[in-house]
Batch of 2 targets.
Target 1
Amino acid sequence: MYSSLVMEHFSNPRNVGTIPDADGIGLEGNPVCGDLMKIFIKVSDGHITDVKFQTFGCGAAIATSSMVTEMVKGKTLEEALAITNRTVANALGGLPLNKMHCSNLAADALHKAIEDYRSKQKEKVGTG
Ligand code: FES
């Protein structure tokens, strides 16, 4: 049912944890199952230099989050924003159809973390 890559990321997830001084944090919930995903990013010169995630989610959510953190490290914010749930699922060798909704958590939480970073930057400019 799951690809070997999904199983591998589920069993050995990358970048689990938090970043206490994160530049952006994105929280996303899945209304279908009630699972939650939080992504933390550090940004320097328009690039994502570090990323971590915490999840209260299923195996597919863990695997997609692990994969998304691997995919965005070192990428520009624009490149990271271009990553969709479909891109992540494809990178994992596909997900069962009834688990595709789980991959939304990772991509959406990442996009929210970038939005959070950008709004904080605007605040800084506004008050600076
Ligand atoms: Fe909730 Fe997969 S079942 S994220």
Target 2
Amino acid sequence: MLRFVTGNEGKVREAREYLPEPVERVDYDYTEVQSDSLTEIAAAGARESYEAIGDPVFVDDAGLFVEGLGGFPGPYSAYVEETLGVERVWRLAEGECDEPRRASFRAVVAFCAGADVETFDGSVRGRLVAPRGEGGFGYDPIFEHTGRTLAEMSTKEKNAISHRGRALAAFGDWLAER
Ligand code: ITT
């Protein structure tokens, strides 16, 4: 059993589809440290969660990096989704960025089961487009990869190419070796 500390059901759905062991969601509101590094944020979250819960846990910190906006919203993606919303991020990119409006998604999975924290990262490149699709979550409707937005893909299809899919694959390989 793997314990995933997150408030985001979409992330849990993707982890369940990917990891070889059952995944249980744990609700614990760890401190998101102020940092430009997703790895630092995830590692600190995993350590704090492990200390609070007392069992091995993993967390996932992700962000959308828009090239023409200097990497914004990056590590602040959750705050920007809450305050501006995805539709306005698209409008900002539409007004400010030249075609093809390149962007990438990055995710870092951090696992803590004791003194050390292991981190696994993944990224995917794409472009920002006007919202399309009903699936996925967060910024998925405005992120296009090879002709489809992530919201137009099934969880399996998204995992096969996504930042989180890649990070989870590395985590899964590491678990299998352990
Ligand atoms: P946690 O409880 O796990 O922290 P969260 O949704 O706050 O959940 P993050 O801080 O990692 O997670 O999220 C960064 C933002 O990026 C947030 O607005 C997410 O909705 C969005 N996001 C993360 N992964 C995404 C994905 O695969 N597709 C689309 N949007 C994503």
